[in-house]
Amino acid sequence: MSKETSSSFQHHMQAQQGRLSSRLPGFYELPIGQRREIILGMNHLQTHDQTIQGEKLGDFSTLSAELVDVFIENGVGTFALPLGIATNFLINGQDILIPMAVEETSVLAAASHGAKLARAGGGFQTCSTAPIGTGQIQLYPREGFDYESVLQRERMALIDHANEGQHRLQARGGGARNLTWRYIEAIKSLVLYLDVDTRDAMGANMINTMCERLGKRVQDLIPCEMGLRILTNLCDKRLARARCVVPQAQLSNREFSGAEVVDRIEQAYLFAAHDVYRATTHNKGVMNGIDPVVIATGNDWRAVEAGAHAYCCRTGVYQPMTRWWKNSAGDLEGEIELPMAVGTVGGVTTLHPSAQASLRILGTPSAQGLAEIIVAVGLAQNLSALRALASEGIQRGHMSLHQGNMRLAAQKGASQH
Ligand code: MEV
After folding, report:
1. What residue ranges define each of the domains in the chain, with the CATH number in brackets?
2. Does the beta carbon of 288 sit less than 6 angstroms from any atom of ligand 1?
3. Measured from the CB, is residue 216 less than 6 Å from ligand 1?
4. pLDDT of 46-77, one tens digit each?
5. Which are the catalytic amino acids?
6. Is 34 exposed, middle or buried (0-12, 13-18, 19+ CB in 10 A)?
7. What are the φ/ψ torsions at residue 161 (nearest 5 degrees)?
8. How close is the Cα of 77 to the center of ligand 1, in Å?
9. How far apart are CA 202 and CA 133, in angstroms?
């Protein structure tokens, strides 16, 4: 670390008196121990919970054999991933440090760089819909039976029935909200859709429990064979959105003016919008930002991945997850909208020490708040990738960061021969 970096850090620390700005120039040059100290020095972490300090945040890598045994079957150990902090994020005017668990070189650097570009335009503005998850109940009704009249008449009673036994969810303001249905002729199936406000939980278990319970009641009303009862991961009523503006001056480099880079990023987006091969890679880059935060907070990244990609196909053609355009001032503007079924309470999120530490670093957001942070990180990641791809290419930056990996791999290879 250079002297200059270290003294600018001291100055920064004094200025912030514990509650750090997410703008941490030189953070990447510090040794890991010092980076930890800075994160541990954050005001809201110090005052929040002392046990988190020593036992959880102090060691970012704990997962006891007891927890391994609770989380999965046949457990024999853990599989470690690096956990890092992406800097520079300003989301709805708030500085937020982003914990990311990922093995890929340059992902954290790129997220931090994208956040820095967006910061110059005021950071990310985000919003989200209520945390509504949906469960499906599939029935094969007896031919000719008037299920439509029964469902119309019983709809409210069925919603009430689904809510029975869900006192804790209801006390937190959640619960079943709506029931709709459609008949799929090709498979002779009546499919019921139960919408549930899951509040701060991801909610898979509660939705599945409610669907199984409701299925039994529906069978009493409609003569039928029962099919599947399970949530859908295409939770298109549970959306998170982020938007940002990057002043064109931020985008200039040795080869191109800022205005040229704005045009080139817009063209890069249009390429993805018109070519599914490019859209897939574009979206992989978005998920480079999303998955690591989902993982770091103990959430189900397979569910998030499945929902995100299905949502991109909602018009029948696979589309990019983000959209970029030149605004009337000639600056770059971008947005993202994705389903985001994540929770901040329950299951692994509550039990996993590193997930708890990550949530504390994020400022203990609600599930909706976390969903908004996650899509903002996806947008930053994509911005950084497109900026590089649309100008000098990604390999220069990537390979310079990747050198440590290659050196170790070469040493290992040499020692194995
Ligand atoms: C690499 O992990 C991700 C990128 O390929 C994304 C993209 O092409 O937009 C750089």
Report:
1. 83-129+238-407 (3.90.770.10), 132-232 (3.30.70.420)
2. yes
3. no
4. 545 444 444 455 456 678 899 999 999 999 99
5. 104, 284, 300, 398
6. middle
7. -60, -40
8. 32
9. 8
